[in-house]
C-alpha cells in the first residue's frame, strides 16, 4: 500500500511539473509573438487571496492554476540580501515591525507572514533567489518594485539560468533609465510603465516605442478617446499592451471588482481585450483565466 501511495504522489508531482513547464512554454511563445491570441495573465503579488502576498506558497498556487506570470516586489535587508516585500516596512505583512533596511536577513527570517485577513501564518519571508529557484522552469516572473536592484536581479537570473523568465519593469523617461540602467535593460526583458492619460503621454510612448520593448504597461484613470487611440498605437507598433485590472484608477473603471462583484466581466475584462490588451495583471487570477478560456484567449 505504501508503495502505491508513493507512486501516486510521484505521478502527481511529475504531472504538476509537466503542466508547469507546458504553461511556461506557451507563455514564452506568446511573449515572443506580438500577435499571439493568448492573453498573458499576471498575478499581482502571487495568489495573495489564498496565501500570504509575495510568498513562495502564493507563487506556487499561481503555477498550479496556470498563471503565466507572477509579480514580485523587492527590498534589501541591512546585511544586503534581497527579500520579497512590497512595503518598506514589515509591519503590514508580518508579525514584526521596522524597516526592511534596518533588519538583517536572520531577523527577517524569524518573522512570519500574515495572510490577506491579517492573520499570522507559519510562512517565512522568502529571499529573491529562493523564489527564483522555486519557480525555475515554471512561470514568468515580473520584478516590479526593484529598480535599484536591476543589476542584482539580472546577475541572479544569469546564475540560475533564468534570464528568459525574468521581466524587469519601471516608469520614468527613457533617457534617464538608459543613463542609470542602460546596460541591464539591454540584456534583460524590459517593459516600461507609462501613464497614458498624462499630458506628455504620447511623447513618452514614442520614446519607448523607438526601442521596441516586448510590452508597455499602460495605466490610465479615465478611458477616453485619446487613451483608446494610444492603446491602439502601441498594439499597431507590434508591442504588447499591458493593462492592470487591479483597481479602477489604473484602467478607467474596467477592473477586477467590476468583473466579479458587479458580475460584469464583459464590461471589465472584455473591454481590455477589445482595446488590445495582451497582458492583464489581476488580483483575481483563477476567474480571469476561466473567462479568457471561454473567449479562446488562454
Notable features of this structure?
single chain; 298 residues; alpha/beta; eight-stranded parallel beta barrel; two-stranded antiparallel sheet; globular
Provide a descriptive summary of the structure in words:
- The chain is of the alpha/beta class.
- The chain is built from eleven helices and ten strands.
- The chain has helices spanning 2-32, 56-65, 105-109, 128-135, 150-160, 174-187, 201-209, 225-236, 256-260, 265-274, 285-294; strands spanning 40-43, 69-72, 74-76, 82-84, 140-143, 166-171, 189-195, 215-219, 240-244, 277-282.
- The strands form two sheets. It has an eight-stranded parallel barrel, surrounded by seven helices. A two-stranded antiparallel sheet has the order 3-4.
- Helix 7 links the parallel strand 7 (189-195) and strand 8.
- Helix 2 runs parallel beside helix 4 and helix 4 runs parallel beside helix 5 (150-160).
- The protein starts with a helix and ends with a helix.
- The relative contact order is 0.12.
